[in-house]
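Q: What does the predicted 3D structure of Ionotropic receptor look like?
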Amino acid sequence: MEAYAALNTTLIPLGTGVRIPHYWLILDRRADIDVDPKPFFKQRTHNFYFYAMYPPCHMCFFTRLVASKRSSLPRDSGDLITFVFSFLLLALAIAIVSHHLHRRGHSARLSAVVLFLASTFLGRSPQTPRSAGATLKTLLALWMLGTFIVGSFLQAHITADISAVSFNLEVEDLEVFEELLDAGKLLPCIDYNFMLYALEHFQTPFLKKLASVISTRAKDCVILGGENGCHRRVHQGSHAYVRSCCSYDVSVAFQQGLRKGRGSLQMFHRAVTMLPNLPERRQHRRLLLAISESGLDFVHKMKAAPVSFDEGNLLVPHPFSNYVSVFAIGCISAILALCCEVIIFCMCRKCRL
């Protein structure tokens, strides 16, 4: 610390009666470096916070997505509709075949209409004429394969359309947030100290209102040190998550199923480490090397690359198996129906399998 003082920098150790948070000491240029002792560690370590700036960042709120259109199917039954629908039509085809067998005997054939409908749905081509050439057989085989794929896709698409749920923001903008806040139906949630300092530092009317609500109901609004505490409360519908909304923060909240509301509460800067901005960089570099060799702990904030996503999309991430299972069940049921149709057709023709 004496070496840093020799570099003509302002050094303020925390815990010396200074009540102003080190964030604002740095941002207001009243200090270049803050030294934060850690008495709760057994070894003697210090944290060094260096002056620098990020690009401006906004403070906003995050809320959950609510379903505006419920599924028209019972819960956990969307994947079974294709299976049930396929075998209902298969049972209809079997009933027609049984009726013809009972009425005309074993040598009776299915009518052309029933054969065409069953083959179109089940993905089986009509009976190929014996005199057909290789071109006709190839075309019929391609028609059978295409009908099978298209039929399975349509079944999966209809199932997804019936069982899909539409999502919208529960709290769309700041006006709705303020109305719910005044009515006591929604509370803000903060999970780290920086937002508390920001609410005390900025003097906008809405932030003053948030600060008063948080001060009166601190136990319900402030969750420090808890892992995903605000996320759970936002998903319960009782809170709105107030925090910075830079690109990385928005992407992390999006992965947790939260969505940024429209509007900004405040714009601010953040302190990070940026060594070229400090005076006398060569002496500072040698001093950093000496401090690192002494075993002291450095605290700095690295700029993380945001996760790419389409912010205009309201899709909630679901497991990929939810989408594949519908198509897989449709394919399996179509294959089973095709096998049953072949067996029934062979029984009608008195052929051997």
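A (community wiki): The structure tokens above were generated from the sequence. The chain has a mean pLDDT of 60. The chain is about 50% helix and 15% strand.
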